[in-house]
Amino acid sequence: MSRGHTSFGYRIENGVAVVCEKEVAQIRKLYEGYLNGLSLVAAAADAGLTLKHTSVKCIMQNPHLLGDDFYPAIIGQETYDAFKVERKRREKALGRDKRAKRPIEARPAPISFRIREPVLASDDPYKQAEYLYSLIESED
Fold first, then answer.
1. Closest CA to 60 of 89, 33, 97
2. Counting runs of H as helices and runs of E as strands, what totals does the chain give?
3. Distance of alpha carbon 44 from alpha carbon 31, whole angstroms
4. C or N terminus of the chain, fewer CB within 10 Å?
5. Among 126, 5, 19, CA closest to 74
6. pTM score > 0.90 for this model?
7. Tens digit of pLDDT per residue, the chain (140 long)?
8. What's the 3-state SS for 18-61?
């Protein structure tokens, strides 16, 4: 079943977000585990979730869990803030807070293109599309 854009912990009924009790229990256990020293993945496993680091972090950083005009609150501000503080503490302890942030170079978007003449053909439509896109060049 596809979740679409509905946040983990909720489901939509008649156009209204309602909490999904099983997932709410998992989310609360996730925060509890992490704040008690487990890694993100270990906290997820302890909560009965099989997720990768990034997915767990995405769930835990979701501000909808605090409640807003559409979503009911699942966790309190204190828990959410404690997670952010602990994440920053661990980031610093692991030396990940000193990673060089590359500046984003602002460049004008190209507005003129040309395509080279295709010479190959593939029966696989995905490979063919990939090939054809590779022939596009900017004239700027």
1. 33
2. 5, 4
3. 9
4. N
5. 19
6. no
7. 345 578 999 999 998 999 999 999 999 999 999 999 999 999 999 999 999 999 999 999 999 999 999 999 999 999 999 999 999 999 988 888 776 667 777 777 777 888 889 888 889 988 899 988 888 887 76
8. EECHHHHHHHHHHHHHHHCCCCHHHHHHHCCCCCCHHHHHHHHC
Cβ-in-10-Å burial (0-12, 13-18, 19+) of 55 comes to middle
**Cα maximum dimension of the chain:** 62
User: Both tokens of residue 99?
Assistant: 């990673």
Query: Do residues 112 and 140 touch, judged by C-beta distance below 8 A?
Result: yes
Whose CA is closest to 60, among 46, 40, 38, 78? 40
Instruction: Give the pLDDT of residue 81.
Output: 97
Taking 3-state DSSP, the helix, strand and coil percentages for the chain, each rounded to the nearest 5, stand at 45, 10, 45
Q: Other CB atoms closer than 10 Å to residue 20's CB: what's the count?
A: 17
Where do we find the tokens 């439509």? 125
CB 49 within 8 A of CB 67: no
* 11 contacts 24 by C-beta, under 8 angstroms: no
